Amino acid sequence: MKVLVTRPEPACSELITAITTKGGEAFASPLIRIGPGAELNTLIPQLDSLTANDLVFLLSKNAVEYANLTLEQMGRSWSDKLSYYGIGRSTGQYFQQVTGKDIRWAEQGETSEILLTHPELQFLEGKNALLLRGNGGRELLASTLRARGAQVSYCECYTRYPVDYDKALFNQQWFQTGITDVVITSGQMLALLEELITEEYQTWWFSRRLLVVSERIADQARRGGWQKVCVANSADNNALLEALISIDMGC
Question: Where does the Tetrapyrrole biosynthesis uroporphyrinogen III synthase domain lie (predicted)?
Answer without folding.
Answer: 14-242
